[in-house]
From TrEMBL:
GO terms for cellular component: cytoplasm. Residues 1-14, 21-35 have a biased composition (Polar residues). PANTHER family: DED DOMAIN-CONTAINING PROTEIN. This is Sterile alpha motif domain-containing protein 9-like. It comes from Pinctada imbricata. Residues 1-35 are annotated as: Disordered. It comes from the Eukaryota.
Length: 1263
């Protein structure tokens, strides 16, 4: 039976006739030389015009119907490979997934590596040892990142790499092997396979049509594996194209049935050898060229950072690195011409254009550009210093073009890159990519982040700042308000939308030559004359005057292309422009082209690009070329987006009014709600299957409808950073009670995304804001959101959750906690002595207190959950201030409704006698601990004013009762002892300063705190953990500071302390416990007063590695926490960080005035090769008996004089040493050791803190 006969039996007759006709016309095979000629004609740059898309969209008139089936949703079948290659557009567009189980060897199969596979599902267990992967692995790694995994591993699918998943496991990994029976195999891998399919679906959702290529298996039973895996893919991805490459082997009835069930869109019947040879002819010419050398400025001035293709591909995940030479290769001039036109309309200049034409091709220098370039060069790059530059800008003012020009100007001095953050970007991975760039070049890295979420920008900068990298981050931030409001801080700049006279002249000179008519030149000249005459014009007007035949202003520009017939309603192009305007004006974002497939009237499996949009849309929109996923579209300008919304939504009479410059007119706002609802309905129609969240669509809606702008520019320390209660869109909708439109809009989001807890939380928040009396409805929303969170985390530990899920959970828990806090605040007020919104009579006190205690319990639990989502001691911990506020407010409520005498008596009651007493006593402890945790978790510079207001409130409430709390004669247990410690500290609090150990000035108070801590430690050892892990961690840290307090008289030694610290670490394994255990082991291991202990040093090394991994999440991990001192006692040998002053400018360290302890001066040898400016190591000299090496980190460039370069490698130096979380040991004040001659002829090293040294001959040698 031949292939044609097989397909006749497999597929319906109508399709069989086409297949027979097609195969009959293709019966004659071409010779190899003829094939070569054919393939050459369809390479990427030489596709004949007649080779147009042959999928379900359209077919050129020259196409032969009998060759390719073009019936909608029909099957295309050919045995000519060029038809298949045309169908997939020569693999130059879209994303491809391969299903294979090839075991047979054939020529050219290594050419499969030329296709940019997104993912490969390989069903051959031997693939890596002697199968397809063994052939392709090295070749793929040379051109893109390759992640090889088995079904049980976590997915890692990305646009710039290939995930190769061994779906049946690998013979090289025993725990991945699976059963040979398909049912047993699928049962074992189903849940893990779903993770891979979900990740794949999330990546392509609404961005592209996935093209799944199936190499039909040689073995019949493999087809059953394929079918089950493809069925699982079908559950997650709505529309994808299935292409089968069939080598025409005899098929079983089972295979025929499976092929029929798969409903392929295209079948290519040909040998794999011919197919792979064809792939080489098409892609080999473009990918087989000489390898590109990725050059960057480097510290050794050779400009050769040794970046190979695989590394470059890894960097491309989230970075556009500006290499010294053009990495993009030749670019079609027609493409660049289109980009020029797009730029005049409001598009961005791509890096390709910069490489092709250099700086100044279309962009003109802005007034502030050279100032920013000079500041970065002189203040940061030359001084090898990190920094954060923030540029606030008006929408549509050309900021993106300017900052790219800034980066371009700097790229020859130091490595530069633009960071492309998207919702899938893992900030840890981005930080690692930047670190790779830094390690390769050993120079400061200048990064640009253009308009991303400020929280993510701050988080990334913290991650970078925690490392040894030197990074200058340029961050742009849109400011759609009056620019005159801005009070700029240091390193902040503001770019106005209006051009200066000098800028107008430069723009005129730049664009005049681009005007192809006299009318355009006249319009451009008029704008310049207006500016010189004092009239205001914006940057975008220069581009539009160059682009349009006759520019007469934005309103005329919009009206010239848009006509709305009130009787016919909005046409598809109106809706497209309206949606683009909506997300640009309110959300400053774009929409994937694929989203508009239905509005464009195209078949669902069409690959939508910018060229598919109607002329009216292309006039106002530009393609987004620089996003990680690409193929998105946005409105050209913010002001055009506003104008289009005004034109579409308002009445003709309202359009002529100009008084609403900063917001939409009342007429447009009146129709805004229904238009947004229509947009959400269209989003619902584009929702993928329920198992996929549709991240991109929910993200667009969140940015547009929910995100609130933060006008936090220029605040001083006394001002509060407050965001408005509502987003700009919600503020523009339904501004009068009962605000039904606002509530209904968020409710609509919950209907479209019922599985997203974020939207349900926001609905609850909207109820509480807009309909505060409807608290029951709000509570239902929060409860349902929390139920969804429980489902997400069922059976999963918090530490095992991915970054996105953690963020969602923290957000939901925090919003729920804030809801109950607001309910409490209605009865308590928002400050000490504040009048409450709802007054409570004496008669109502008990019942109201009962309700508020219930609300408090809920709120504290939710704020606690947010803290649990972040390991204690780590940054970004939410919920501290929330719980503090809850407890303080409720204590205020109790205090307010009791007389002073009643409150005194209440405090003296046993906790079992009174619910109020228990709550207050517990809160005194909890609030103080939360303050301390906040100090240890969040950088003090980033603490909001609310934090310090709460300290003041806490002191005002409890300070006068400190002596009562301290002397309560209650049961002797851990809880009551902690209350006493809190009361002691409370006595020493002042205004916004919390009472702490360093404020205590009475020896008996310090001794009492030490005694209480040690009693609690003993109770914990004998009775187990009786308090929270966080509380015990803080108690141990208090104790280790208290025994070193200047007023504590009892001497403690390291040998005594280490047993307590070891138990601390064994019990908690917290960053604090690891850190102090590491220090104690190190001090004893150094053997400063005796013999080094190699075993302790080895154990300390293990803890040092753990701390290094943890440090990426800690606040200022490179900051010295402790210093190595001189003396036998613990307080002498371990100096607290506050006793040593570290100069941030030159990196030196000095003893603070009044200190009686001294830092130990150590000796060592600078390790080789010592060529990095920021990273160096010193081999610590611990004497002749030391056998375990200890390396101490230091910054060569920060020493005086700098010790950078090979000439210093191997030099003997002295230094003082700090302990840090990031490196364990860090050397300061590093200087070369001085040597002095002895009478015997030998040289003796004498440290700076010594006057006399001892020679080996026994003589004393003086300086």
């Amino acid at each position: 039976m031949n292939c044609n006969t097989q397909f006749q039996k497999t597929f319906p007759s109508s399709k069989n006739e086409k297949s027979r006709s097609l195969n009959a016309n293709k019966a004659k095979t071409s010779s190899s030389s003829e094939l070569k000629t054919t393939y050459a004609n369809i390479t990427k740059r030489n596709i004949p015009d007649k080779y147009v898309e042959v999928s379900h969209k359209r077919v050129n008139a020259e196409s032969k119907p009998q060759q390719i089936s073009t019936e909608d949703e029909g099957l295309s079948h050919s045995n000519d490979i060029k038809d298949c290659f045309k169908y997939v557009k020569n693999f130059t567009r879209g994303h491809f997934v391969l299903f294979a189980s090839q075991r047979e060897m054939f020529r050219y199969r290594d050419r499969l590596a030329l296709i940019p596979w997104l993912c490969v599902f390989d069903f051959d267990e031997h693939s890596r040892s002697d199968g397809l992967l063994s052939v392709l692995e090295d070749k793929m790694k040379s051109s893109r990142t390759l992640y090889v995994c088995t079904w049980k591993d976590q997915p890692r699918i990305s646009y710039h790499g290939t995930q190769w998943c061994l779906v049946r496991g690998s013979v090289q990994e025993a725990d991945s092997r699976t059963e040979s029976d398909t049912k047993a195999w699928f049962k074992a891998i189903r849940n893990d396979l779903e993770k891979h399919m979900h990740d794949l679906a999330s990546l392509v959702d609404n961005y592209t049509i996935l093209k799944v290529i199936i190499i039909w298996p040689d073995e019949p039973y493999d087809a059953e594996y394929f079918q089950r895996a493809l069925n699982k893919l079908d559950e997650f991805v709505d529309d994808y194209t299935t292409i089968i490459w069939d080598s025409c082997k005899q098929k079983t009835e089972s295979e025929k049935a499976i092929m029929n069930m798969l409903k392929p869109d295209f079948i290519l019947t040909s040998s794999l050898q011919i197919i792979c040879k064809g792939i080489h002819e098409i892609l080999g010419a473009t990918q087989g060229a000489s390898k590109f050398e990725y050059k960057l400025p480097t510290a050794d001035e050779k400009n050769s950072p040794q970046i190979d293709e695989s590394t470059a591909s890894l960097l491309r995940e989230d970075l556009d690195v500006l290499y010294l030479d053009n990495p993009y290769g030749e670019t079609d001039l027609e493409v660049l011409k289109k980009e020029d036109e797009s730029f005049y309309k409001g598009g961005n200049l791509s890096w390709k254009t910069f490489y092709c034409f250099g700086a100044g091709h279309l962009d003109a220098e802005r007034d502030m550009m050279n100032t920013v370039v000079s500041k970065i060069s002189q203040q940061y790059i030359e001084n090898f210093k990190s920094g954060l530059i923030t540029i606030y800008h008006a929408p549509g003012c050309g900021c993106t073009t300017m900052v790219r020009r800034i980066l371009w100007e700097l790229k020859s001095k130091t490595p530069c890159a633009q960071v492309r953050l998207n919702q899938r970007s893992n900030l840890q991975s981005v930080s690692q990519q930047i670190e790779t760039l830094y390690d390769k070049t050993n120079l400061p890295i200048v990064l640009l982040i253009d308009g991303d979420d400020q929280q993510r920008v701050n988080h990334l900068y913290k991650l970078i700042d925690h490392s040894h990298m030197v990074v200058i981050l340029i961050n742009t931030k849109r400011y759609p308000y009056n620019m005159k409001e801005i009070i700029l801080k240091e390193n902040h700049f503001a770019l106005d939308g209006l051009v200066s006279k000098d800028e107008a002249s430069k723009l005129w000179k730049k664009f005049e030559d681009k005007c192809d008519t006299d009318r355009k030149k006249d319009n451009l000249s008029q704008i310049v004359e207006d500016v010189r005459s004092g009239r205001s014009h914006s940057v975008y007007e220069f581009g539009l005057a160059t682009y349009l035949k006759d520019y007469k202003g934005i309103d005329a520009y919009i009206a010239g292309y848009l006509e709305v017939d009130d009787r016919a309603g909005l046409q598809p192009h109106h809706k497209i422009l309206g949606y683009l305007s909506l997300v640009q004006y309110y959300g400053h974002t774009s929409i994937p082209c694929q989203f508009f497939v239905n509005l464009l009237g195209l078949p669902s499996k069409s690959d939508v690009t910018f060229d598919d949009f109607p002329y009216q849309v292309q006039q106002f929109a530009v393609p987004c070329q620089d996003e990680a996923k690409g193929n998105s579209i946005r409105l050209c300008h913010y002001v055009v987006a506003k104008g289009i919304l005004e034109f579409i939504l308002s009445s003709p009479h309202a359009r002529s009014k100009k008084e609403f410059r900063d917001k939409l007119s009342p007429s447009a706002r009146e129709n805004l709600y229904s238009f947004v609802v229509g947009f959400i309905d269209d989003v619902k129609a584009r929702r993928s299957k329920g198992v996929v969240k549709a991240n991109i669509l929910s993200d667009i809606l969140t940015r547009t409808i929910i995100f609130r702008d933060n006008r936090d520019i220029g605040e001083n320390e006394l001002q509060r950073t407050r965001r408005p209660n509502l987003s700009r869109l919600l503020s523009d909708i339904g501004s009068k009670p009962p605000y039904l439109e606002r509530v209904n809009l968020i409710k609509k989001l919950t209907e479209v995304f019922p599985e997203d807890p974020n939207f349900h939380s926001h609905l609850g928040r909207m109820y509480s804001l807009c309909r505060p009396d409807d608290e029951k409805e709000a509570e239902k929303c929060f409860q349902y959101a929390l139920e969804l969170c429980d489902r997400k985390t069922s059976g999963i530990k918090y530490e095992d959750l991915d970054e996105s899920t953690k963020h969602t959970l923290k957000h939901v828990f925090h919003m729920a906690g804030m809801f109950y806090l607001q309910r409490i605040s209605k009865y308590t007020g928002r400050a000490h002595g504040d009048k409450p919104e709802k007054r409570t009579t004496k008669e109502q006190y008990k019942s109201t207190l009962h309700d508020l205690l219930f609300f408090s319990e809920k709120a504290c639990r939710y704020f606690s959950e947010t803290r649990e989502l972040t390991m204690f001691g780590y940054s970004e911990a939410h919920g501290f201030i929330g719980e503090i506020s809850v407890r303080i407010r409720l204590c205020e409520f109790i205090h307010r409704y009791l007389s002073d005498r009643e409150f005194d008596n209440l405090l003296k009651k046993k906790e079992s006698d009174s619910e109020e007493a228990k709550y207050i006593q517990d809160s005194v402890i909890q609030i103080q601990e939360l303050f301390l945790q906040c100090y240890g978790t969040i950088d003090i510079d980033e603490l909001p004013q609310d934090f310090f207001d709460s300290i003041r409130w806490y002191s005002a409430l409890f300070k006068e009762y400190a002596s009562i709390l301290e002397n309560l004669n209650l049961s002797d247990n851990i809880y009551q002892r902690r209350l006493k410690v809190a009361a002691i500290k409370l006595r020493y609090g002042k205004e916004e300063m919390l009472g702490a150990l360093e404020n205590i000035n009475k020896p008996q108070d310090i001794a009492e705190i030490v005694r209480i801590c040690e009693m609690n430690f003993q109770d914990t050892r004998t009775r187990g953990l009786q308090q929270s892990r966080r509380a015990l961690d803080l108690e141990y840290k208090d104790w280790i500071n208290a025994v070193r307090h200047d007023l504590f008289k009892t001497p403690y030694f390291v040998e005594d302390v280490i047993q307590q610290v070891r138990y601390w670490n064994d019990t908690l394994q917290s960053p604090n416990s690891k850190f102090y255990h590491f220090i104690m082991l190190s001090i004893l291991g150094f053997g400063l007063n005796g013999t080094p202990n190699d075993d302790m040093l080895r154990e300390a090394r293990g803890l040092q590695e753990q701390l290094k991994k943890l440090s990426k999440h800690l606040v200022k991990p490179r900051k010295p926490r402790e210093w190595l001192g001189r003396g036998p006692g613990l307080k002498d040998i371990l100096l607290q960080g506050r006793k040593v002053h570290r100069n941030d400018e030159d990196g030196s360290a000095a003893q603070r005035d009044g200190g009686h302890c001294h830092m130990t001066v150590l000796k060592g040898t600078i390790c080789r090769p010592n060529i990095q400016r920021q990273t160096g190591y010193i081999q610590l000299d611990l004497g002749d008996k030391n056998r375990f090496p200890v390396k101490v980190f230091f910054v060569p460039v920060r020493q005086n004089p700098p010790l950078v370069g090979r000439q210093y490698a191997g030099q003997r130096v002295e230094f003082v040493m700090a302990f840090t979380n990031a490196d364990g040991y860090e050397a300061y004040n590093v200087m070369q050791l001085e040597k002095y001659g002895c009478e015997c002829g030998l040289k003796v090293e004498i440290q700076s803190d010594e006057y006399i040294g001892t020679c080996k001959c026994g003589r004393k040698v003086a300086k």
